[in-house]
Design a protein that fits this description.
The structure holds two protein chains of two kinds. By secondary structure, chain A is mainly alpha-helical. Chain A contains 25 helices and four strands. Classes of the chains: A mainly alpha, B mainly alpha.
Chain lengths: 677, 523
């Protein structure tokens, strides 16, 4: 026990360069305690808001503080090797040994910083957003539990522990999507998310089996160190492992073909969408690919698959976002699309660029979701006041809200400009690096797709802003006077994220951009973790060119893309701002191509017809035909057969001696006849 | 005191005490019998619990062993003991039984004395099966076990209880009769080889048996055990028995009785007939049947309208995993399999308890009769969710540990089999979550459901131990795994060795029973 506590609080092996994890256990303990207290609160002091308001956010802020301390310590020491903290032995059976081990390296600490940082902000925002919800305590318990599992996912030092976090965040996602479980549809969305994610988890699970079979361990440090010698570059095994891991990633990070759960996941409270379904959990797949960078670098086929699926998803989801009217659906498809960018990055081997976009996206997408939450919050209240049941999520019911929600309006524009990739906002730097990587590594088609998607992104985001904040208000004369800006507990988080959405990109400024100081902080920071993967790629001749497929260096294309995005924003704005939209109740459903996009390319319907219904029919068939019909039918027939024989036999048991004599003599005669003949 | 826990007396007491309790149940007042039963089972649990610590996990040797001659002429003895393979089974039995008894307090209104006596008799018989190291004694307990279960289903069961009870009885009896024949054959062969009649497990397990004869005898044992497991397609007695049995019956059936089959394979069929048990034909057949169980069981479960039947079919899937692990003949596979037996006992037992609690309130088990239960019964809903998650093997719960180890073990030898089995994790979500959703979530759209009371103190006491174990084993399974490791490794070594050393001669044609003194034809 003493040992355990010691390692929980402060013990490190493998550490060099003077860095030792500071209070590593507390990063997990804080949110776990928060979960327990708030969870008990959900049953014991159901109506008290004070305890959850205090415990919920503080647990995460405490965790963030510890992470920050670790970040600073690591920054000072810049260790080359990861520090491993072993808490206890989880399973040791035969030659398998899995410890509850945490890994502290530049990648995990950076990710933790983003996760706990954004979580802290969103927890505070939730105090305002969920204030009047009867499930207040339950909400914070789930949210705390999510941060716990997310931290496990990030810190896990072996595949198995990461898998614990991986499925754990899936559980929290399920619970929070279906948070308002009395709504059958919402609960259904949660269930869908869980089941679709399980398809991905199956991939992760089998990948683990393969890794153990070939390496005899699941520990990252050992697996990645041994990989270049143990496995053949481009061989079947490493390709299979990485493809299976990527299957897991497509589930968690909502990529084709498993993205369908994420738009439905918007059924959850909006801060949940911001935290889980935009900033953190859905990026876990990208994190996993970056974590297993060495393996992916060794499997060019998998890399190409990751990049192609990423780019494809980015474009596909962006087209759908163009024609959605539910503000959260637009942002959901936008998230799917931006995640596609991240996969494009890690797929072409630009792991750091992928992580870079993951970070900036966490800022501006959390901002946009929280902003949409502010709008929904305001609309909901106003509609509630006048007892109307219009959809507070439908942008056709908004319009001209910039006057009543000025802070939300301003901060959301910052987020929009950031995601559109306009200089000098965060998204510009990260997206530019991805597009540049795709081009310069020679993925011409994907490069074109990524530029196209960038333009669509600018387009649908401007559409969202115009529909929501500009033009005339369509909420109705009765609703309008009740619209109010959100309280400080909600807009201060918006402001913080807005600042990060501006400066977040400045951690990495390419040398080639003129008139700017070159900053290499992120690459330098991740260097120790990413180096092995880069080495593998260089050894096998993957080189970054200095020109794009169409000629021109990074600077040219960066300026061109920001210029194009700006033009798209302005054109879209001018085209839409004077258009007359009608409230949702008076609008017709879009037709033609717009209708196809509005109906999301009918993918859900397709999955229903081609997969779900046939499967259910098969399952019913198994039950009715095989189990009841065939197996039990045969058995019951045997039973009736036996009874039949008994019944026939009983006919002879007449109780009359003459009858018995007759059959006896007949028998004797028959036997004698047989013997004689 | 520690002396007691290292002697056979702790096991003997576990046999005697419930029988005495059963007798007492019959003579006390009708409404007192439940307390007698509860007390007896709790004491039995308390007696068995220290074994968890006193058991020496470093050795594969039989512990708490005793062998007293009983019917000397036939070489039958009272021989009992435990090792790493049986200790968790014994603990599981004593753990589950009090929960089942406590869950019966309000449910059972008729013939209470007989009911609780039956449960205690069942407890003794189950312990007996797991601790017997004499084939005669084992078979005795194996058959005794049938009787109380038959009555529990047939007397205190639901509408089609007689059909279910008879089906249960016939299925199991047919299997065990063949096993009896096989036992007699082994004893005979031993006599012919060494000139001694003995039923002692430790002697018989040393007997070299000819290779083709092994297949015949293995089949007889395998049939008996496969029905109990149950392996596809011998599983159809299970849904009927579960649906008709009272809650406690289902809990014990799922919790302990289903483990008898897998235990039998490990303890008897595999070491006795190692050559047959490791031959490609047998392993292939059992792996395929296990796979079918995993996938097919999940599929059929997913479309059940009756919650209890759904849970019953999930057992087919879970036990498929167990069997796959055992026949992978790897350390992880078998240890995972044993742990998964415990996990299944706890999780599925708890699911039956939960469904039973709803049944007591609403007298229906149909999933569609519920909806929105989470609103009116929040504690129940939270418990139900946790148990459901354990059943689908979410990491952090016990279910994951077992499944994961089984998959790791199987994958080492049969990657394709493990690959297909792993799809079971998807289907598990596909049967469990829709049930959770349809019962717990949505609006409370039925008037009857609006007034349901949340689970009370007694019901919480019933569930709490199971919930604690679900998380405990999920987070810190190592103490449980440590108990089994030495015996499992010894078993694998023994089986692999004996598979090769089995004599080629001595086939079926060598069997001549005319020299068997116990048959009364002494020469």
């Amino acid at each position: 026990m003493v040992n355990f506590l010691e390692s929980f609080l402060r013990v490190a092996q493998h550490a060099d360069g003077g860095y030792q994890p500071i209070l590593p256990g507390l990063i997990l303990l804080f949110p776990l305690v928060g979960f327990v207290i708030n969870g008990l609160g959900a049953f014991l002091w159901r109506d008290s808001k004070r305890v959850p308001s205090l415990v919920g956010p503080l647990a995460i802020i405490g965790s963030f503080a510890v992470v920050l301390a670790n970040f600073l310590a690591m920054h000072a020491a810049m260790p080359h090797d990861p520090a491993i903290v072993s808490l206890w032995t989880w399973m040791a059976v035969g030659d398998l040994s899995i410890g509850v081990d945490l890994q502290f390296d530049q990648l995990s600490v950076l990710m933790l910083l983003v996760v706990t940082g954004v979580s802290s902000v969103i927890h505070v925002y939730s105090i305002g957003y969920m204030r009047e919800d009867p499930g207040y305590s339950r909400y914070f318990s789930y949210l705390n539990l999510f941060v716990f599992f997310m931290s496990v996912l990030v810190m896990g030092a072996n595949f198995a522990i990461v898998f614990v976090g991986w499925e754990g965040v899936g559980l929290c996602s399920y619970l929070l999507i279906g948070f308002w479980y009395e709504n059958r549809e919402f609960a259904s969305a949660g269930k869908k998310a869980f089941i679709v994610n399980r398809i991905g988890d199956f991939g992760f699970l089998v990948a683990m089996l393969l890794v153990f079979t070939h390496f005899g361990t699941l520990n990252f440090v050992e697996v990645f160190a041994a990989a270049p010698e143990t496995l053949v570059f481009g061989g079947g095994v490493v390709t299979l492992i990485t493809l299976l891991l990527f299957l897991g990633a497509t589930g968690k990070s909502a990529q084709i073909p498993l993205y369908v759960w994420l738009p439905d996941a918007m059924a959850g409270p909006t801060p949940v969408s911001a935290l889980i379904h935009a900033a953190t959990m859905v990026t876990a797949g990208v994190y996993l690919v970056a974590r297993a960078g060495v393996l992916f670098a060794m499997a060019p086929v998998s890399q190409a698959t990751v990049a192609a699926i990423g780019a494809g998803t980015a474009l596909f989801a962006a087209t759908i976002a163009m024609q959605q009217y539910d503000i959260k659906k637009v942002l959901a498809y936008s998230t799917v699309s931006q995640l596609g960018y991240m996969f494009l990055a890690v797929g072409v081997g630009a792991f750091t660029a992928g992580m870079f976009h993951l970070i900036t996206h966490a800022f501006f997408k959390a901002l946009l979701f929280l902003g949409s939450g502010a709008v929904i919050h305001a609309m909901h209240h106003a509609l509630h006041q006048v007892h109307r049941h219009d959809d507070p999520n439908d942008m056709r019911n908004y319009g001209g809200l910039k006057n009543v929600l000025p802070i939300t309006w301003g901060t959301m524009w910052i987020g929009t400009v950031a995601i559109a990739g306009i200089f000098p906002f965060a998204g510009f730097f990260s997206k530019d690096e991805i597009i540049w990587s795709a081009g310069s590594y020679g993925y011409t088609v994907l490069w074109v797709v990524s530029i196209l998607t960038a333009l669509l992104t600018a387009g649908y985001m401007t559409r969202l802003m115009v529909l929501t904040f500009h033009g005339e208000n369509r909420s109705g004369a009765d609703v309008r006077p009740h619209l109010r800006e959100v309280p400080a507990v909600m807009w201060v988080p918006l402001a913080i994220l807005a600042v990060l959405s501006v400066v977040g990109g400045w951690i990495q400024i390419p040398e080639s951009l003129p008139a700017l100081p070159a900053v290499d902080a992120l690459h330098h920071w991740l260097e120790p973790v990413m180096e092995p993967a880069r080495q593998v790629m260089t050894e096998h001749g993957l080189h970054q060119a200095h020109e794009s497929p169409l000629g021109g260096g990074e600077a040219v294309w960066a300026i061109m893309s920001t210029g194009l995005a700006l033009i798209v924003v302005m054109l879209t704005f001018r085209a839409l701002v004077h258009r007359r939209y009608r409230p949702a109740s008076e609008s017709e459903t879009p037709t033609g191509f717009a209708g196809i996009l509005y109906n999301k390319w009918y993918v859900d319907e397709l999955y229903d017809r081609l997969i779900i219904l046939p499967l259910l029919a098969l399952w019913r068939g198994c039950w009715r035909i095989v189990d009841v019909g065939l197996i039990d039918g045969t058995l019951n027939a045997m039973a009736s057969g036996t009874r039949m024989v008994g019944w026939v036999g009983s006919l002879f048991q007449t109780g009359r001696v003459a009858g018995y004599m007759f059959w006896f003599v007949t028998g004797v005669v028959l036997i004698l006849a047989l013997l004689l003949l | 005191m520690s002396n007691f826990f290292e002697s056979h007396w702790v096991l003997s007491l576990l046999l005697i005490l419930p029988m005495a309790g059963a007798a007492l149940c019959l003579i006390v007042q009708e409404e007192k019998s439940r307390y007698v039963a509860m007390l007896t089972s709790v004491v039995a649990f308390a007696i068995s619990l220290p074994l968890f610590w006193t058991f020496r996990s470093g050795t594969a040797a039989i512990q708490n062993y005793v062998s007293v001659p009983w019917i000397e002429a036939w070489g039958i003895g009272y021989t009992i003991g435990i090792d790493g393979i049986s200790i968790l089974m014994v603990l599981l039995t004593t753990f589950v039984t009090p929960l089942a008894i406590l869950a019966s307090f309000t449910y059972i209104q008729r013939h209470q004395r007989a009911y609780y006596a039956m449960l205690l008799l069942l407890l003794a018989a189950m312990i007996g099966v797991f601790v017997s190291l004499d084939m005669f004694l084992f078979f005795l307990f194996w058959e005794i076990m049938l009787i109380p279960m038959y009555f529990i289903i047939g007397v205190w069961g639901g509408k089609r209880r007689v059909y279910a009870a008879v089906k249960f009885f016939l299925f199991t009896a047919i299997g065990s009769l063949l096993m009896l024949v096989a036992i007699v054959v082994i004893v005979y062969l031993y006599y012919r080889q060494y000139g001694v009649i003995t039923f002692a497990y430790n002697d018989l397990v040393q007997l070299p048996i000819g290779r083709d004869l092994q297949f015949v005898l293995f089949s007889a044992f395998a049939l008996a055990f496969a029905i109990k497991v149950p392996l596809f397609p011998l599983h159809t007695w299970l849904p009927d028995a579960h649906v008709e049995a009272p809650t406690a019956g289902s809990v014990i059936l799922a919790g302990v009785l289903l483990k008898m089959g897998a235990y039998g394979f490990l303890r008897f069929a595999m070491p006795f007939f190692s050559h047959a048990a490791t031959s490609p034909v047998v392993v292939g057949t059992i792996l395929v049947l296990s796979l079918v169980g995993i996938i097919y069981g999940a599929w059929v479960a997913a479309v059940q309208p009756d919650a209890k039947k759904l849970v019953a079919y999930t057992s087919v899937a879970h036990l498929g995993f167990v069997m796959m692990g055992l026949f992978s003949l790897t350390t992880q596979g078998i240890q995972g399999g044993i742990l998964q037996m415990v996990n299944h006992g706890i999780s599925t037992g708890a699911l039956f308890l939960l469904v039973g609690m709803l049944y007591e309130r609403r007298h229906t088990r149909m999933i569609d009769d519920f909806g929105g239960i989470a609103k009116v019964m929040p504690v129940f809903a939270a418990s139900f969710l946790l148990v459901a998650l354990s059943s689908i093997g979410l990491p952090g719960t016990n279910g994951f540990i077992g499944e994961f180890l089984i998959l790791i073990g199987t994958f080492q030898k049969y990657p394709v089999v493990a690959f297909i089995a792993a799809t079971g994790v998807i289907f598990a979500a596909a049967y469990m979550l829709p049930m959770v959703q349809r019962m717990l979530y949505g609006e409370v759209d039925r008037e009857e459901n609006r007034v349901l009371s949340d689970i009370g103190i007694r019901e919480r006491l019933v569930l709490a131990p199971a919930l604690v174990m679900i998380v405990l084993i999920g987070v810190y399974p190592q103490p449980f795994l440590s108990l089994t490791s030495a015996s499992v490794e010894a078993l694998i070594e023994q089986v692999e060795h004996r598979a090769v050393s089995a004599p080629v001669q001595m086939g079926v044609s060598d069997l001549r029973f005319d020299r068997m003194p116990i048959l009364g034809i002494d020469e």
